[in-house]
Amino acid sequence: MGMDRRESMKVMALASVALAVPGCTTRDMERAATHAAERVARQLPEADRLPTILSPTEYRTVEVLVDWIIPADERSGSATDAGVPAFIDFMLADAPDLEIPVRGGLGWLNAESMRRTGIMFADSLPPDQQSLIDDIAWPEAAAPEMEAGVRFFNLMRDLTASGFFSSRIGFDDLGYLGNRPQGGWDGCPDEAHVHLGLD
Amino acid sequence: MKSDEYDVCIVGSGAGGGMVAHELTRAGARVVMLEAGGDWDAVRDGAMLTNNYESPRRGKATPERPFGEFDACIGGWHLDGEPYTTAEGTTWDWWRARMVGGRTHHWGRISLRFGPDDFRRKTLDEKGDDWPISYNDLKPWYDRLDRMVGIFGEANGVYNEPDGIFMPPPAPRCYEKMLARGAERAGVPVIPSRLSVLTKPLGDRPACHYCGQCNRGCSTRSNFSSQSVLLPPAFATGNLTLITHAMAREVLTGDDGRATGVSYVDTASRQEFQVRARVVVLAASACESARLLLNSKSHRHPNGLANSSDVVGRYLTDSTGADAMGFFPQLVDMPVHNDDGVGGMHIYIPWWHEKDRSLPFSRGYHIEVWGGRSMPAYGFGGSIHRVNGKLSGGDRSRGGGGYGTQLKDDYRRLWGTYVGMSGRGEMIARRENYCEIDPEVVDQYGIPVLKFNVSWSDEELLQMKHFHETAREIIHAAGGESVWDMPTADNDWGITRPGQIIHEVGTVRMGNDPKTSALNSNCQSHEVDNLFVADAAPFVSQAHKNPTWTIMALAMRTADHIASEVKRRNI
Q1: Smallest Cβ distance to A71: which of B49, B381, B405?
Q2: What is the signed CA dihedral for B90, B95, B96, B98, rounded to 10 degrees?
Q3: Which site in A117, A168, B386, B560 is 20 to 30 Å from B60, CA atoms measured?
Q4: B476-533: per-residue pLDDT in tens?
Q5: B110, B128 in Cβ contact below 8 A?
Q6: Residue B114 and residue B88: Cα distance in Å, rounded?
Q7: Listed residue (B402, B395, B377) closest to B215, CA to CA
Q8: Helix axes of B548-567 and B135-149: crossing angle, nearest 10 degrees
């Protein structure tokens, strides 16, 4: 699944938009898209008031942790590049049930780091950070005494994936081609058929 | 406070109310419509084509929109200041919309006709009751509805899934083709779905542009909602007056016992109003319409209006429901492609044991299909640690979970590899399943609220057991593995709680005998000749089919009857 194919599929999808939708003009589509953007601008909560829940120290810890979970690679940037720390902070305000497990877990992480190295997680050396994460990142292999850390890391893994892949960077990373008007519907493309062994 | 007298007052602006308004305003009647919620317009207010990353919430649910912040339907299982209660030991989940167009904004637009057998179940298996009308009585109205609203599908000749007047169906998505192949191997038939989404232009409504977002409200009006399809032509006649934020309190009656109008509270100002009308049509949803009748007590109608039979609120059913999901290794590393299509399934599994009397339950179910490379949103890739240990490639020695570049790639590879099925079946209508007025609880407007008393029987539980077994057969035959454990009798075979499928019907049922029904075969009260019900309350049985298409065909027929009775000066 190379970049080239993904890019070419995108170009094809965009080209199909330019085809006339039966009975519907390009202007109808543009109007619908413009309207959606305006509506969002009008109704969405302010995103630039962060952090609201996390303390600066907690925020910094989140920044370091989420980039361990989703680092940059050859295809896309890291979790912090995609704004995941701000996303998580917003979610703690929007979904109050998350606040205690996330902030409590950050406390556990720093306490464990202090126990091992004498300093907070975000300030410790990358190899020390990694060795702590290695002990909590694989639920089946983790030691029983790491249970609280495992549960916290599962939650942070889920939140990081949510925030990363639902970002614009994440959409592009996945090659998400949907949510756009198309001139028609052709069903399953040939190469996908072949991949599934359907024909 | 007294206002002008209208020809017709309709309570509710959803599928039934919208249809009656459409028909009667065009017949020349002056119609007033009461809607408990506020104004909403798909073209003006809908969120179609919004990317989830445009919101810091990324599409997650809000208290006002439990199905996601961009979902069209304003409402929910719980509304502030509008409680409902349940009898001890029972549960009921009640979804109510509060907006112009009602629950047609929530509806998945699965548009199924009831079949010939669905109108005569008692004749066939001696359970429940027959309808006072047959499929042939309703067929011309289904036909007109198909042409008016627009529906896609394919004529398949399945006896109890009558064909309609269809636009071409969209081709199946990749994962749907894959699952259909498995279903065929398991001996389960698959046909194109039937949804009220335009695949060809109809009147001034353009064809679908396949963005897959019907649930957000369609800015080009290419799908159906009462608000975008039925109400604009009604307004264009100049005969429709819509009053929003109008919570109906009771149906008013005169000394002769006939309906004279409706009293309502303006939810914004809390002021009381009355509208006068020669004909009253209730289309507030099955349970709200029953509640209105039960709350309309008077000297002439001590048991509630149109309720000498004591059936109002009784025979309440919801569809049965259960879900199964599979992980399909062949969907890993799929070539990039667009899975959107219309906003809903392209394939459908109708009930395939219609003539089989050997099963341990009486009524059928259908299967809906879901999955695909849907727009990433809040919740993307959740609980990956439970599954990515099974992936090929990389280091899997410590099981699932992990972090870093391998995890990042796992998310990409697993996106769209889950395909699910939902069983939706018929519950048998029984007198002992009912809603009634709770004598001790009122809502914030002082209107007594409903108390529900509904339970599943073995008929429903064993039906969903059969679904779970079938779904697992299909998943395995299609090359997948079931993700969830097979439910057991101890957890009621994984059946949804009553109400959760949002298909409640039957609370003001039709019939030929006034002793055992509230409405006659024209959805007209046996006792109050200028009172009609036009939502799913008149249904005598549920069928496994989503009720909306039948609500609208029946409402159209009821409106025609009202118009002809008014013309003949009978009412």
Answers
A1: B405
A2: 150
A3: B386
A4: 999 999 999 999 999 999 999 999 999 999 999 999 999 999 999 999 999 999 999 9
A5: no
A6: 34
A7: B377
A8: 100
**Residue numbers of B between 473 and 512 with CB closer than 8 Å to A:** none
Q: For B172, which residue in chain A has the nearest alpha carbon?
A: A187
Which residues neighbour B356 within 8 Å (Cβ) at sequence distance 6 or greater?
none
**Selection from B163, B55, B147 nearest residue B112 by Cα:** B163
Torsion angles phi and psi, residue B126, rounded to 5: 65, 20
Q: Which residue of A has its CA nearest to B62?
A: A94
ipTM (interface predicted TM): 0.91
The one-letter amino acid code at A181 reads: P
Note down the domain range covering B559. 1-47+95-150+224-314+505-571
B334 CA to centre of own chain: 34
Residue B269 lies in a domain: yes
Of A11, A131, A119, which is closest to residue A57 (Cα–Cα)? A119
Considering the domain boundaries, does residue B133 fall inside one? yes
Type of residue found at B95: W
Q: How many CB pairs under 8 A join A and B?
A: 244
Q: Contact, B346 vs B176, CB < 8 A? A: yes
* CB spacing of B337 vs A177 below 8 angstroms: yes
DSSP states along B121-178 = HHHHHSSS---SS-HHHHHHHHHHHHHHH--B------TTS----PBPPPPPPHHHHH
Q: What CATH code is carried by the domain that includes residue B279?
A: 3.50.50.60
- DSSP symbol at A180: S
Alpha-helical regions (H) of B27-73:
42-45
Strand partners, B522: none
Q: Which of A90, A94, A178 sits opposite B338 (nearest CB)?
A: A178
Q: What would the mean pLDDT of B96-109 be, rounded to a whole number?
A: 97
For residues A129 and B544, give the distance between their C-alpha atoms in angstroms, rounded to a whole number. 56
- With bands split at pLDDT 50, 70 and 90, how would you rate the model's confidence at A7? very low
Residues A37 and B444: their CA atoms lie apart, in Å, by 36
Q: B393: buried, middle or exposed (CB in 10 Å: 19+, 13-18, 0-12)? A: exposed
Q: State the Cα–Cα distance between residues B498 and B319, nearest whole angstrom.
A: 8
Q: What is the pLDDT of residues B33-42, one digit of tens each?
A: 999 999 999 9
Locate B362 and state its tokens. 């009486």
Distance from CA of A115 to the nearest CA of B (A): 23
Contact assignment for A182 to B411 by CB distance below 8 Å: no
B381 near A CB under 8 A: yes
Q: Which whole number is the average pLDDT over B109-113? A: 98
Q: Do A137 and B401 touch (CB under 8 A)?
A: yes
Residue B382 belongs to a domain: no
Secondary structure of B198-238 in HEC code, one letter for each residue: CCCCECCECCCCCECCHHHCCCCCCECCHHHHHHHHHHHCC
Query: CA-CA distance, A154 to A138, in Å (whole number)?
Result: 9
d(CA B502, CA B70): 20
* Cβ-contact B493, B487 below 8 angstroms: yes
pLDDT band for position A30 (50/70/90)?
Answer: low
Number of domain units in chain B: 1
Helix A99-117 / helix A126-134 crossing angle, nearest 10 deg: 120
What residue ranges do the domains of chain A occupy? 56-174
- Per CB-CB distance under 8 Å, the chain A contacts of B338 are 13, 177-178, 182
On whether residue B457 sits in a domain, the answer given is: no
CB-based contact B498:B93 (threshold 8 Å): yes
Which pLDDT value is given to residue B242? 98
Mean pLDDT rounded to a whole number for chain B: 96
